[in-house]
Write a structure and sequence with these properties.
Structural class: alpha+beta
Length: about 80
C-alpha cells in the first residue's frame, strides 16, 4: 500500500494547495499545486505524455530543504 505522508502545506485562499507529501514506499515527494494548462508556457518545456506540470509559489521551495533535513534528522 502506498503511503503518502503529508509533510507541509502553505495556506491558500481556496484551501488545500499547495502541499508537499512524501511517499515512504517509493522514497519520492508528491507535490500538490495548480495544474499548468497554458499552452505557451508548456511549449517551453519538454514534458513527456506520461507526466504533468504543477505550479507552486516560489515561497514553497524553502520547505523542500526543511523536509529534507527532517527526513535526515527527525530531531530537527
Amino acid at each position: 500500500m502506498i503511503r503518502a505522508r503529508h509533510l507541509r502545506s502553505q495556506e491558500s485562499p481556496s484551501g488545500g494547495s499547495p502541499t508537499v507529501y512524501l511517499d515512504d514506499e517509493k522514497d519520492t515527494y508528491l507535490v500538490q499545486g495548480w495544474r499548468v494548462e497554458d499552452d505557451e508556457r508548456l511549449g517551453q518545456m519538454d514534458i513527456p505524455g506520461h507526466e504533468t506540470v504543477v505550479e507552486i509559489p516560489r515561497r514553497m521551495v524553502q520547505f523542500f530543504q526543511e523536509v529534507k533535513r527532517r527526513d535526515e534528522d527527525p530531531d530537527v
